[in-house]
Write a structure and sequence with these properties.
With 385 residues, the protein is mainly α. It has two domains: 243 residues; 118 residues, abc type-2 transporter like domain (abc type-2 transporter like fold, 3-Layer(aba) Sandwich), CATH 3.40.1710.10. Helices cover 66% and strands 6% of the residues. Strands 2-1-3-4 form a four-stranded mixed sheet, with helices on both faces. Strand 1, helix 4 and strand 2 form a beta-alpha-beta unit. The longest helix has 31 residues. The two termini are 37 Å apart.
Length: 385
Amino acid sequence: MLATIRRELNALWHDPWLLALVSYIPLLCALSLWWLFSAGIPRQLPVAVVDFDHSHISRQLTRHIDASASTQTIQFADHASAEAAMSNTQVFAMVTLPQDLSKDLKQGHTPTIDIRYNGEFLLVGKLVSSSISHSLADALLELARLKQLAAGIPVPQANINSSPITTQITALFNQNNNYVGFLIPPIFVALLQIMAMLIFANCLNREMAQSGYQQWLNSHLLRNVLAKVIVYTPLVLLQGCFMLTWLYLYQGVPYAGSLGLLVLAQVVMLLAVWLMVLLVFFLLQDSARVVSFCTALFAPAFAYMGVTFPTHEMPLLARLWRELMPSSHYIESHISVISYGDSWQMVLRQSESYWGFLVLIPVIVILAKWARKRQAEAIEVERHS
């Protein structure tokens, strides 16, 4: 076994691409992704305002929107130019203040303020829409209060009439809508899974590129595969530990539980990734197709984690696809440890979802025997030809 491990380490040392995958490429990718979201909290997102009323009240509503740290208003003269700006992503939302807005409010009517936002940008659109709605609600509430005070109603009663029920919304997690704490962890997990897949697929494909592939298949195949697992699991795990250290210890993103539990959860995730890659490798037996198929399989990992979109709302095919990706199982443990501080018992219970990957082991054994037989037949044909 030690000789097989030394052979694998020697092959890694003489493979520049694989050496780059286990060393600096994941670190550069992780740091680049962090830099993209390093601002953390989105500020001054442009919002188009179309004011048909041009009254003191409409200008006051516009100032309330502009006062929010998340939005910055841009005046447009008509709908067409505002819609064009939103289509070209110059603005992320559009607010239309109707004609006679001030008159309708003073007469007790209910005018319609049209708010539109670009839903293609899921998080930005949600943030802008929420900010605009809260700004307008606060402004209109203050106008209603001033109107009652002008009518001679006492201040305490005016406050009760304007807002009979006072609500307070306190975010338990990600209180400041910080992108670093919300988006970067699942992005790092998706990146780690892609890198793990590329590393293991390339180390397997290297065997096909060598002249001793038939010998590799015939001589202690289980030992050869275990040697790869022993060599590359700790190397990829170092990448995962670096991402956890950088994010939670160096950058100071809050976490409630033990990071050591996440390291153990990453080990289980990597073992599941190895099984998926082995399945595809012995099934396709072609270097280019193995990498292409695995990349296509794991590419939507971030979208299928359920962080930005509820997974129960996905179509059945998408939910089945999600179950095939180990990152979708790992992220449950990650969120429970980071946000809720769950113990190892909960992480162990969540890891039970990996049991389905054990079914792949007998399938891989059958495919390996089939690959060995095909390789032997191909060599026999070459001899006779």
